[in-house]
Amino acid sequence: MKREVLDDVQEMKRFSMAPKRSTRVTISLLGHVKSFFSALHRESPSPRVCGAASPLAAQKAALLQWKGTLQNPEIIDSWNPIVFPCNWSGVACNLHQRAIKRINLYEKGLIGSINTLNFSALTSLRHLDLSFNQLSGAIPHSIASLSNLIFLALAGNQISGSIPSSIANLSSLSTLYLYRNNISGHIPPELGFLGKLEDLEVSGNQLTGPIPPSIGNLSMLTVLHLQINHLSGSIPSELGNLKALKSLGLPDNNLNGYLPSSIANLTSLSILLLYSNNMSGAIPQGIGALGNLEGLDFSANHFSGIVPPSIGNMTTLKVLYLFSNQFSGIIPAELGNIINLEDLDFSDNHFSGIVPPSIGNMTKLKLLYLYSNQFSGIIPTELGNIINLKSMILSFNNFSGSFPSSILNLTHLSHLDIQFNSISGSIPLELGALVNMVYLDVDENQFTGSIPPSLGYMTKLTIFHLHTNHFSQSLPSEMANITNLVSLDLSRNQLNGTLPAEICGGGALQKLSVLDNHFRGVIPKSLKNCSSLRRVRLGGNQFKDDISQAFGVYPHLDFMDLSQNNLYGELSDNWKLCDNLTSLLISNNQISGRIPPDFGKMYKLERLDLSANKLDEIVAVKRIHPTETENPLHEKQFRSEIQVLTETRHRNLVKLLGYCSFPTVQFLVYETWRGKFGKFLKSEEGGRELDGQREWILLEALQML
C-alpha cells in the first residue's frame, strides 16, 4: 500500500511541475488529493484501495461470509471487517495490494465446510493451503474459477464426494494435494489436461476404478502418489511417458495385471512403491535401467518368476523389498553389486538354492530378511563382512552345516533369528561378544553341546529361544546377568542341573518354558515375586519342591504347567488371585490335601488338570451336551448361572467347585455326597414319592437358587 501512495505522490509532483493549463485542472487535482488523504485517514493504519477495478472488496466479503459458516471462527479473529484484508492472518496480497494472491490456513484447526467458500470471488489466488483442518463437504465445481492457481492443498481434512472434472480448468496448477480425505469416485481423466502439474498426491482416500491413461500426458510430473485407495485394473503403460517422474507411489490398492515394461523408461525415478496390491507376472528384464532408484518395494503382491540379474545395475538402491510374493529360483549373484543397499527383504517367497556369497559385498546392509523360503546349503561365511548389520532373519529354510563363527564380527547385531533350519554343531563360545543382541532365536535346529557362559555378556537380551535342539549340561550361572529377559524358552532339550536362582532377577520375565528337560531341584525363589509372568511351562522335569509356598500371585498369568515333576504339598489359596488364569496343569506330581473351594471362583479357568496326585477329595463331573450351549445366548446364560451356583452356599446344596468350558463341550465340577445321592432322595423301595424330610431339603435348596 505504501508503494501505491508513493506512486500517487509522484503523480502529483509531475502535475505540479507541468505548465498550468487552467485553474479548473488545478482545483480538480487538489480536490483529488484531499479526498485521497481523507480516505487514507479513515482506514488508518492501513490504506484502502479505491477504484472499481480492484476485486479486493468482493474477496473480503467472500472470505468473511465463509468465516461466518465455520464452527470456530474465533481461530481467525484477525479476519475482521475493520481490518485491511491484506493484513489478515494467513492472507497475502499482490504487489499493489489490489487482490489476494495467497491464503495459507495450514493446520489451524478450522471446523466447517469447504463448499461454502465462494471460489468465484478469488480468481486472483495463486496459492491456497487449507490442509490439515477439519473441513468437510465436497470440492465445489466453482473451484474451476481459480484459473491462476499454482498451488492447491486440501490434504488432511474430511472432504468427501468426487474430484470434480472442472479441476482441469486450473491450467496453471503445479501442485495438487488432496491426500488423507474421504474423497470417492474415479480419478477424472481430465486431470491429464493439467500440463504444468509437477506434484499430484491423492493418497489415503476412497478412490475406485482404474488409473486413467491420460495421467501419462503430465510430462512435467515429478511426484505421483495414489496409495491407500481402492484403485483397480492394471497400471497403464502410458505412465512410462512420465520421464521427469522421481517418486511413484501406488501401494495399498487393488491393482492387478503385469507391471508394464514401459516402467523402465522412468530413468529419473528414485522411489517406486507397489506393495499391497494384486500384481502378478514377472519383473520386467529392463528394470535395471532405473539407475537412480533408491527405494523399491514390490512386497505383498503375486509377482512370480525370477529376480532379473539386471537388478544388479541399480547401484544407488538403498531399500529393496520383494517379500510376500511368489518369486522362485536363485538369488542372482549380481545382487551383490548393490553396495549401497541398507535394507534387503526377500522373505516369504519360493527362493531356493544357496545364498550367494556376493551378498557379503553389501557392507552397508543393516537389515537382511530371507526367512520362509527354501534356501539350502550353509550360511555363507561372507555374511560376517556386513559389519553394519543390525537384524538378520534366516528362519524357516533348509540351511544346514554349522553356525559360522564369522557372525561374531557383527557387533551391531541386535536381532538374530535362525529357527526352523537344520543347523548343527555347537554355538560359538564367544557368542556373548554380540553385546547389542536383543532377540536371539535358534529354535528347531540340530544344535548340540552346552550353552556358552559368554551369553552372560548379552545384558540387553529380552528374547532368548532355543527349544527343540540337543543342548545338554547345566545352565551357566552367568545367565543371571541377563536381567532384561522377557521371554526364555529352553524346552525340549537335554539340559540338566538347576534353574538359576535369579532367573527373574530383573522382574521383566513374562514367558518361561523349560518343558521336557532334566532339570531338578527346587523352583527358584525369584519366580515367586515375578509378578510379570504370563506363561510358565515347567512340566516334564524332575523339580522337587513344596508347591504350597513356591508360587506367588500373578495378576497377568494365563498358562501354568507344572505337570510330571516331583512337587508335593498342598494347593495354595493364592491361585484364586490369578484372575486371568485359563490353564492350570499340575498332574503327575505328589500333591496332597484338598482342592481349595475358591477354585470355583476362577471364572476364566478353562483347563484344570490335577490328575495322578494324592488329593483327598473326589469330585463329581457332569458333562453338558454341546447342543445345550451352542447358541451364544445360551453360553452367556450358562456363565451367569455358573457364577450364581458358585457363590451359593447351603448345607443341603451340593457345592459347585468349578467348570471347564470348551467350544464343543462343557463340564461342571461338584463336590460329591458320601453314598448315593439318588438313593438318599428316594425311598429304599425305589418309590418316587419323597417323604417330608427329603421334600423339605429339596424345597429349601431350590429356594436358595
Describe the structure.
It comes from Platanthera zijinensis. This is Leucine-rich repeat receptor-like protein kinase. The chain is globular, with a radius of gyration of 39 Å. The strands form six sheets. It has a 23-stranded mixed beta sheet, with no helix packed on it. A ten-stranded parallel beta sheet has the order 9-11-13-15-17-19-21-23-25-27, with no helix packed on it. Strands 29-31-33-35-37-39 form a six-stranded parallel beta sheet, with no helix packed on it. Among the domains are: 41 residues; 140 residues, Ribonuclease Inhibitor (Leucine-rich repeat, LRR (right-handed beta-alpha superhelix), Alpha-Beta Horseshoe); 86 residues, Phosphorylase Kinase, domain 1 (2-Layer Sandwich), CATH 3.30.200. The protein has 705 residues and is α/β, with parallel strands linked by helices. Strand 1 and strand 2 form a beta hairpin. 12% of the residues lie in helices and 24% in strands. It starts with a helix and ends with a helix. The N terminus is likely disordered.
